[in-house]
Amino acid sequence: xxxxxxxxxxxxxxxxxxxxxxxxxxxxxxxxxxxxxxxxxxxxxxxxxxxxxxxxxxxxxxxxxxxxxxxxxxxxxxxxxxxxxxxxxxxxxxxxxxxxxxxxxxxxxxxxxxxxxxxxxxxxxxxx
Length: 128
Hints:
Elements: E1 3-7, E2 10-13, E3 18-25, E4 33-39, E5 46-51, E6 57-59, E7 67-72, E8 77-82, E9 91-98, H1 105-108, E10 117-118, E11 122-127
Parallel strand pairs: 2-11
Antiparallel strand pairs: 1-3, 3-8, 4-5, 4-9, 5-6, 7-8, 9-10, 9-11
């Protein structure tokens, strides 16, 4: 049984940093793809960062250079380090996983529906 549990969200001021973490169970990292997505009120869910089974990463243009996705196979966690945060980063952030994944990270960034497993989300609020 796959379970994803996000943590690390919160309220910070513009320019601040947050590290989101997703504790996973039931996922074998070597054959899975994972990602972080976000959804702001009234907007569609969008890809923030993805990592494929060989460790290749992709980022949305809006966060490129400010965010880093990483996974720790020993701890079974997927992290998203976000720096230089902006008010437009305010959203609910979700961790997602796809087992037996052979897609590249860049294509997965645009296809949230490809991921069958999702966490409950963690809220990120950036104040100006």
